[in-house]
Each structure stands twice: as structure tokens, then as C-alpha cells.
Amino acid sequence: MKDRPWEPWIRRARSNLARAKQGRQSEDILYEDLCFDAQQAVEKCLKGLLIYLGRNAPRTHSIAHLLNLIKKRGKVDVPQQVNEAVILHEYAVTTRYPGDWEPVTEEEYADAVELAESVWNWVTSITSCD
């Protein structure tokens, strides 16, 4: 692992994505929490990719910031669907705790998982991790 320091990030991303994809196995599971796992999968994938590209993984939940750092590195082209994953940021901040927001719908959850899978597939195709 020391010679491939991005792999633990990718492994943790895979875990978050797997949990997100399990869906609502009971009414006690909230879509907000599953979407948080989708967001975490994207965040960890992007941090793993940054490490793969020779950068440090910053302490941030901002997917937009992570994507900007990847783009600045200039070694990979970021596909449009990966860019769209910035909307998942809300699941790391706004809906993570009880508050003044509308509950996440099943459709929003499905979209979040689809975006997370797109990022996962893109990152693992570059890093050869899966």
C-alpha cells in the first residue's frame, strides 16, 4: 500500500458506494443517509485520484474544489457526468443533519447513486483500482 497510497481511499470509496447501493432495506433508513454515502464515495474517489496524480488529499467535502484541483493537474480530462457530481455536495452538508430542508426523494437518491457510480467507474479506470 505504501507504493500505492491512493488505494485505501479507493477501497473506502467502494465501501461507501456499496452501502449507498443497498438502498432502503427498511423504513428506518433515510434516503438522506444513503445519499451521504454516495457523496462520500465520490469525495473519497476524487481524493484517491488526486493522490494517484501526485497531489495531497485536502481536508474538504467540496467535490467542486476536488474537481478543480484535478483539472489544474491537467493529466486527465474530466467527463461531463463526473462534473455533474458537484450537486452531491448538499448531501455532505445540508441534509446530513436534521434541519430546514425537504426530505430526499427516491428519484434524487437514484440520481445520487448513478452519479457516484459514474465517478467510481471513471476513477478506477484511471487508477486501475477496483
Task: Tell me what the structure shows.
The chain has a single domain (7-125), classed as Nucleotidyltransferases  domain 2 (Four Helix Bundle (Hemerythrin (Met), subunit A)), CATH 1.20.120. With 130 residues, the protein is mainly alpha-helical. The radius of gyration is 14 Å and the shape is globular. The two termini are 14 Å apart. It has helices at 7-22, 31-52, 63-73, 80-83, 89-92, 106-127. The chain is built from 6 helices and no strands.
Descriptive keywords:
Four Helix Bundle (Hemerythrin (Met), subunit A), 6 helices, single chain, 61% helix, globular, 130 residues, mainly alpha
Write the layout of secondary structure elements.
Blueprint: H1 7-22, H2 31-52, H3 63-73, H4 80-83, H5 89-92, H6 106-127
Helix pairs in contact: 1-2, 1-6, 2-3, 2-6
Question: Shape, please?
Answer: globular
Number of domains: 1
Which architecture per CATH?
Up-down Bundle
CATH superfamily: Nucleotidyltransferases  domain 2
Order of helices and strands: HHHHHH
Q: Compute the number of strand runs.
A: 0
CATH classification class: Mainly Alpha
- Helix and strand content put the structural class at mainly alpha
Average the pLDDT over all residues and give the rounded result.
Answer: 94
Give the N-terminus to C-terminus distance in angstroms. Answer: 14 Å
Brief sketch in words of this structure:
The protein is mainly α.
